[in-house]
Amino acid sequence: MWRDWAAVTPFSAPRQSLGRLDAEAAATLIAAAADLVIIVDRNGVVRDIAVHADDLAAQLRDATRWRGRSWLTTLTAESRAKAEAMMQAAAAGDAPRWRQLNHPAIAGPDIPLLYSAVAFGPDGQAALFGRDLRALSEMQQRLVAAQQSMERDYARTRQFETRYRLLFHLASDAVLILDAAGQKVLEENPAARQIFGAPPSRGARTLADLFAAASLPLITALLDGVRAAGRADDVTVQLADGSTAAASVSLFREGSAPLFLLRIVAAQPAGSTVAVPKLKSKLLKLVESAPDGFVVTTMDGRIVTANAAFLDMAQLSSEEQARSESLDRWLGRPGVDLDVLTANLRQGGTVRLFATTLRGEHGVPAQVEISAVTVMNGGGPCCGFAIRNVGRRLSAAAPGSALPHPIERMTELVGSVALKDLVREATDVIERLCIEAALRLTNDNRASAAEMLGLSRQSLYVKLRRYGLGDAAEARG
């Protein structure tokens, strides 16, 4: 908020320095002294007005009709009390002080002006000098907006840091942050302290403090591989206390400095592992060695684990290459098949014999059928996909398969019906067959079928009514 501004020191000898000014010269000087000058009588009625800036005059509401009106009525309601106090001080002969007053604008926010009132003449007239504060007000608003934006960014950063700290300290695996240059430990979580003991009082841990001498080349090669390629396979290493553990590394940047995140998973001592019932153990072994592919994903399609058969279909050499990737990456219709599957899983919990293709990493496609189910895993849902290669079955049936009945009936009409009529009818038949296939693949989920066919839902409903594939009530639903 603007404070009142003290008046400047007046001229010491105005009669000598200014001489005898006539009314025209005085008016020129007064008009040039401010962006807006208003002459009012003792009752505050506007007698004359001079606007130095054209854009200011264009924005002031009814400025051309201020003459003959009370000056207070041209101000906003919250500014009138300050204006009355300023006029009373000028009439009493007090030293003029600057006050911020606002005028309503033709459009947009109010127009702020910095006013000072000077009384003159025997009849109690006063000159009101106004300075345009729009540029300063806009700069102030930008500053406030920038400050608020910075506060929001700081709040988000604090939230991210809080989440990171919480995950870092609650992680059951040992996690260490390494300096990529000197490979010194910058930070470690409580799980790491349980494995490696308390950190030294002076200096920082090094790789030699963490691992046995025989494993240092493995760790160095792992760090170099991650620095060069961005990722590397896990390695089994020996810790300084002689125990065995699996080590994995990720590279990230903090500002311009590269850092390593080193994760250590210690091997469980004999007898400390959670025993799996024998029947469940056999079932897990059966799934792992089954000839059909089996994949477990999160509800958004990110792969958690996959068996060897799926890795063979996808032409992958290890499960790590599939983990955390989207299953959509290998399905035949990207952005369609997985959405249809997950939509049906959310609605019904299961999907049976969904026909599609699966593309390998080297571009080799395979005809597959997918059955899927959702289950709860640790309080959260996950999806299991059973993927069967049916390419041999389809190829064996293809040579002797007959044409669909509608197409076969149309071929019998060749020679007795004009070609253009046959083409039009064939188009309708193919369109109907495609719609029926899409509805069959999506278990009559019309939103998913429309997405699969590249149609809007309304267009699909129109075609359903046209071909009699559902009554009007169902189509509207």
Explain what this protein looks like in three dimensions.
This protein is of the alpha+beta class and 477 residues long. It folds into four domains: 14-132, PAS domain (Beta-Lactamase), CATH 3.30.450; 171-266, PAS domain (Beta-Lactamase), CATH 3.30.450.20; 278-397, Beta-Lactamase, CATH 3.30.450; 405-476, Arc Repressor Mutant, subunit A. It is built from 17 helices and 15 strands. The chain has helices spanning 14-18, 23-32, 54-59, 80-91, 134-170, 190-196, 207-210, 216-229, 278-289, 308-313, 337-348, 391-397, 405-411, 419-441, 446-453, 457-467, 472-476, and strands at 36-40, 46-51, 99-103, 111-120, 125-132, 174-179, 185-188, 235-238, 244-254, 257-266, 293-297, 303-306, 350-359, 365-377, 380-389. A five-stranded antiparallel beta sheet has the order 2-1-5-4-3. Strands 7-6-10-9-8 form a five-stranded antiparallel beta sheet. Strand 3 (99-103) and strand 4 (111-120) form a beta hairpin. Helix 11 runs antiparallel to helix 15 and helix 14 crosses helix 15. The longest helix is centred in the first third of the chain and has 37 residues, at 134-170. It is flat, with a radius of gyration of 41 Å.
The CATH class of the largest domain: Alpha Beta
**Mean pLDDT across every amino acid position:** 79
Straight-line distance between termini? 58 Å
Overall morphology: flat
CATH architecture of the largest domain: 2-Layer Sandwich
Summarize the structure.
By secondary structure, the chain is of the alpha+beta class.
